[in-house]
Amino acid sequence: VRMALKKAEKEFELRSSWSVPDALQKWLQLTHEVEVQYYNIKRQNAEMQLAIAKDEAEKIKKKRSTVFGTLHVAHSSSLDEVDHKILEAKKALSELTTCLRERLFRWQQIEKICGFQIAHNSGLPSLTSSLYSDHSWVVMPRVSIPPYPIAGGVDDLDEDTPPIVSQFP
Prior knowledge:
mainly alpha
């Protein structure tokens, strides 16, 4: 029993002196920053959906104020279409809120486990330059958030986005 206890104490001492490598910290911070960028694109797309739905609802409201507009709106499918767009925008915003909560909780837990900050870091340009400086890779600048809605949604974004890292001979 004493030998097992001494062995366990030695293992504990070895594990307690272990620290997270600096490179792992930087990779985690880079991963966090990339995830934040994709979240921001997703948020902008959801906000754009909501803005479009609001605009269409306003158009219907204006049509209703005319004499024949009420009759036209009542017999068209535009109300259903706008209602569907509003529901889709609400769903996207709800999913976004859930995604944000999960992401924040997950990164807080990772920070607790690792014992260093991940969310507050030197920023994407600094992290990429330090992580890719020792390689023959060139980091392409990240795509800025487009000022227009993403036609296929965020899921199709990878197909349209230029590669992050390109190799040169």
